[in-house]
Amino acid sequence: MNNAQLSSKSQKFLEDLRVYLFSSGKNSEEIDEITEELEVHLSEAEKNGKPIEKIVGKSPKEYMKMISNEMVNDYRTWFTYICLIVFGSFAITIFPDLMGGSLSYSVLEIIGHLVIAALFIASVFTGFKYLAAHRTSFKKQVVLLGGIATLPIVLFVGLIYLNQVIDTPALHFGQTGSLIIGILASLIIIGVSIWAQSWVLVMIVALVTLPDFLLSRTSLSEDTQFMIQPLIIIAGFAVYLWLSHSAEKTKQR
Amino acid sequence: MSTTQMLKGIIDGCLLAIINDNEVYGYELAQKLEEYGFNSFSEGTIYPLLLRMQKEGFVTSTLKKSTAGPRRKYYSLTPKGELELNHFTERWDHLQSNVNRVLHNESNQKEVN
Questions:
Q1: Which one of A35, A103, A147, B30 has the fewest CB atoms closer than 10 angstroms to its CB?
Q2: Tens-place pLDDT, residues A113-161
Q3: Can you give the residue range of the structural domain that contains A157?
Q4: Domain for residue A2, yes or no?
Q5: Which residues of chain A lie closer than 8 angstroms to B26, CB-CB?
Q6: Of residues A61 and A75, which shows the higher confidence score?
Q7: Residue B61 domain boundaries
Q8: Least CB-CB distance to B44: which of A56, A69, A72?
Q9: A120 contact partners, CB below 8 Å, separation of at least 6
Q10: Mutate to test the interface with A, among B45, B51, B74 (most CBs of A within 10 A)
């Protein structure tokens, strides 16, 4: 694709349209198709000196909505991301806990976890959709995205606090129960990874459990271990992102 | 009532007629509409309509390489689309003669007498 001949205003519109359709839960192939089609139209219109308003009308938001309404919702994409977020956040909690022995959670913890995951998913999709459809200042974008990113952290901290204050029945899973949950969680993670063709979940689980496990076998002092662990997690994730990014690039060529 | 509101539903038929005439891609389609005098609406409006007509099975599309830039999506009519075009033509002829009669103050009665 050759974007070079397209004005920045048109490019911005196409990018916004992509985000808008994606956060509206549309199929990514269909999104590619319609944006490619509009790209052709916009570049030819620009060659003939037509302004972008002649194509998308006065309100880009209205136009995006019109297109979105004619596209079928692709629940597969939605489902993939919801699975990734829900199971991902569960796995992050379950595996380190498994390393420490058998599992035990309060009812509040389990329900709270599900609610937080649901809230996070809803806020990500509405936030992105809002940003794509509205002209917002950079400051407002930072505030909004920062808010979305901190929301689950704040909620989890709140949940930990609530869990200490309010007493709800606890579920103890015991040795065998914990083992079964561990195996089930692993199977789900592997299944979702194969299905979504993304190893990011496996990576996250490995990064939150392996460094801790391996470091505890070394002769390093506990303080050093405590300091090194987050560094390994961040560095490991950076390496993973870099690798998958370059893999994506070679695939495109 | 604005022209845009009046055009709703009529543009669909016009698109079918133009596509029936010749295989076209989006930009060409908008150009042709403009040549016919439809120049008040935003060109992009044709894409949601094309998406719907494709969903309803009236048109199909094929991607073709072009010498300049990205691939173009060419539309052609399906048998179902041809049928729809015939229906549209009938409906339009009927509507147009009725509206004309109203505007010129003639009634069916008068004609019969």
A1: A147
A2: 889 888 888 888 888 888 888 877 888 888 888 898 889 889 989 998 9
A3: 75-252
A4: no
A5: 37, 40-41
A6: A61
A7: 3-112
A8: A56
A9: A85, A148, A151, A152, A155
A10: B51
Radius of gyration of chain B (CA): 17
Interface test with A, best of B42, B60, B66, B71 (most A CBs within 10 A): B42
Q: Are residues A60 and A142 in the same domain?
A: no
Domain count, chain A: 2
Average pLDDT over residues A161-186: 86
CB contact at 8 A, B72 and A40? yes
Residue of A nearest to B26 (CA): A41
- Looking from the CA of B67 toward its CB, the CA atoms found within 13 Å total 0
Residues of A in contact with B71 (CB under 8 A): 36, 40
Residues of A in contact with B48 (CB under 8 A): 66-67, 69-70
* pLDDT tens digits, B60-95: 999 888 776 778 999 999 999 999 999 999 999 999
Instruction: Please check whether residue B102 is in contact with residue B86, taking contact to mean a CB–CB distance below 8 angstroms.
Output: no
Q: For chain B, what is the domain count? A: 1
My answer on whether A199 and A174 are in the same domain is: yes
Angle between helical axes of A174-196 and A75-99 (0-180°, round to 10):
140
CATH number of the domain residue B81 falls in: 1.10.10.10
- Classify A106 as helix, strand or coil: strand
